[in-house]
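Input record (one chain):
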Amino acid sequence: MALLELTAVGKRFGTLQALEGVDLSVEEGSFHGLIGPNGSGKSTLLKAIAGEHLPDAGRILFRGQNLTNAGPSKRARAGLSLKFQITAVLRSLTVYDNLLLALQSADSVKALLFSRTRRGLHGQVMEQLAAFRLADRAEDVAGVLSHGQQQWLEIAMALATKPKLLLLDEPTGGMSPEERRATGDLLQPLRGQCALLIVEHDIDWIKGLCDRLTVLDGGQVLDDGSVAEIEQSAKVQEVYTRRA
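The corresponding structure, as predicted from the sequence alone:
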């Protein structure tokens, strides 16, 4: 059974049919990329999976559970986590406290009121910061980090709940080439921990990271397959040539 399975998912905004009949399957532990021209529906599909946009048609199954009409909190409890395209770290708090708050999100109000979890989570906070090359920035306020470092911090925060599937919307957007390469290196150790579903415009970057690609065009699945299969796809080549 697939970790995530979408069947005939559709989403309309007024007269715009943003998604139409989308089928998608993501296997447990896999790195799966969503690519396509601008306006093809990639971010809308990611938000439909996360629960920000409820689909008008079709079905979304996650770990065998029907989450089609579930809200974001229920999906998060089921093991889904989303990192948006726009960075949403708390800029006035330290890097340490941003990640601590993310880790504390599952704690009871009573435990938080009496600060029972901060000391117990210290090792976990520092280990996660080290994994994303941020341990030496722990006491800096998040707002002074570079754009790439803020993206890394937010990915670390999205992983705090130990999701089974992490949704990443353009995680390398606005990064330098060096930061893009580093981001790929930082994500590789997640293999075996959780699956990734990634929307990304940098085709070379996503081909180097993902096991499988789904190509959207006009809100529909144009093609789906391994990286090698998509590279050889005449349908995909025609679309990208037409949009160039």
